[in-house]
Amino acid sequence: MARAQFNAEVGANREFVRQANRFTDRVTPHSTSPPGGGPDEQGRWPLEAGRYRLIWCRACPWAHRARIVRGLLGLEDVISLGTVDPIRDERGWRFALDPDGFDPVLGIGFLSEAYLATDPDYSGRVTVPALVDTVTQRVVTNDYPQLTLDLSTEWRRFHAPDAPELYPVELRPQMDALMAEIHRDVNNGVYRCGFATSQRAYDEAYEALFARLDVLSERLAGQRYLMGDSITEADVRLFTTLVRFDVAYHGHFKCNRQKLTEMPVLWAYARDLFATPGFGETVDFDHIKRHYYATHRGINPTGIVPVGPDTSGWTTPHGRG
């Protein structure tokens, strides 16, 4: 039987079943807690500039979303940023990029320390992004889909004057449905391909992935962005998977019907976003490749990181807009 990358996240048909998000509190202006206080009885933390720290990894697509949305909304001076190393071992995400290996604000060497400070019995996989309270050093949330939506809705008081509407009220029903499809078949779909430990599970994930990419390509052939003429949260979520497709998912996760560069509409769309301020400058192809190929030893036992592919095409003209 094939070896699973994460033994606790395997279903009955040897398919990958992503673990639930453990910490789901929220920062909101509706909290009844005083400034500096903890969560109220509904798990709502007070909205305060400078209090919370977003922990991300340049390699992780889920964390990359939060980094992009934070920047697009102008929240860089409101929510501080901590970056973990792309190489994760049995101890989890570490702050090896910082001097002496400790986050300069939280003073911890591993993100797991904040997880255990919040729940001493936590035994699941430590994940990014995580929003950590710098007062108590507790994890407020690792609920990545809600976190980015909250940055658009609950943090509005601190948005830059020219911040985009990433989650427009009038589009939310259609956006929610579209983002659910993208999550199931694309964002998580590449992992369902890569972490499958049966042929059946892999085949099903592979077919769903490329069927969805075909549908998205048809949609984007007639409009610049997923919801029309403006960038929304849906575009951020799709971008962070597409930008990793050729450097990681095509080979490492066996998502190899085509490379992104061989899907003309999606390739132009991804380059359009890459050229948009707030997107391309947050991408680190070296971190992405080192994380996937050196960390997933169940898939790549040698830990060898490929030299290619050539990523210079990302800055070529996209012809959209």
From TrEMBL:
Its EC number is 1.8.5.-. Residues 168-295 form the GST C-terminal domain. Keywords: Oxidoreductase. The lineage of its organism: Bacteria, Bacillati, Actinomycetota, Actinomycetes, Micromonosporales. It comes from Micromonospora azadirachtae. GO terms for molecular function: oxidoreductase activity. This is Glutathione S-transferase family protein. Transmembrane segments: none annotated. SUPFAM superfamilies: GST C-terminal domain-like, Thioredoxin-like. It comes from the Bacteria. Residues 23-44 are annotated as: Disordered. PANTHER family: GLUTATHIONE S-TRANSFERASE OMEGA-LIKE 1-RELATED (PTHR32419:SF6), GLUTATHIONYL-HYDROQUINONE REDUCTASE (PTHR32419). Signal peptide: none annotated. Pfam families: GST_C_2, GST_N_2.
